[in-house]
Amino acid sequence: MMKFQWTLLLGIFFALIVSVFAVINVDPVTVNYFFGTADWPLILVILGSVFMGGVIIGSVGLFRLFVVQRKVKALEKENLQLKEQAHIALQEKNKVKDEPLKKRATDSVGETGE
Fold it and tell me: pTM surpassing 0.85?
């Protein structure tokens, strides 16, 4: 809960700084595109650049998350297969251990099972 409160306070503080920055930087600047030019307020150019940077970073992060999730699923599947193989090997090992005991055990008449 405390982490959420600190995140909220930092978000409000950042919004306050951006709003002060927006009031100070309202002068128009010329933006050159491939197909022409346009005059925009400086704050919109800055916020647009920040937004596009966030979108690019977010896209890269989502792609990496997708790749990691696929790898985790593959490793979980491999882990399950290895556990099953280990379980089967343990059962076979226990079966081999138990066989000599059965041979040595006496039947109801008192004879050995050999």
Answer: no
